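INFO batch 0412 | record 1 of 1 | parsing
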Amino acid sequence: MVHKHSPTPEQVQELLKDEEVRISLTHCGDWDYFLSQLTNELSRKCPFCQVDEKKNKSLDGSNKYWRVQRSKFPKKHSEIHLLIVPRRHITHIKELTIREWVALLRAGWWVLKNFDLAGGGIIWRFGSLKYTAASVRHSHVNIIVPNLQGEIRDPLAKTPAKVRENDTRLEFFLSHVLAGTAPDETWKKHMERLKLSFEKKD
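INFO prediction complete | emitting tokens
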């Protein structure tokens, strides 16, 4: 998949002046997810504020204040990956009203009653992306149940080696976007080699 309308170098430069945008894009570990986020950032659209109901249907536990949905980009090795997303655009939990907190409990209760959650984790990031390792600037709750076929990690902060790896991947992805091309499958092997070299330096 290639970006439909390749941005100019000037547009990219302007976009990356915003530190939160840059951090958001560095946290995209997959080409398709990166393109999705880049498109959102270029058009100044929030993926949780501009929801296509046909592609990402709200579940019945949704209410006036919160949307319950399946993740469009579920974690690798997850059996269930649900999101509970505030309908209002917020970045920090301190912005929530009492009514929104109560409605969140109702949405969570619905999830408990309607999904077989043998175990798992709840991850809720909020605030500056510097402190969350998130890629979307709209606070939301992740409910994840592993499939026990592999490890699931969801860090709040990155190691210096991981930061360098993410920066390198961003530059690589941007070079393809500006050239109007898509990377072939060898990019993953290349990133794996870089990752090992970054870890050795630490």
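INFO post-check: The chain is about 40% helix and 15% strand.
INFO record closed
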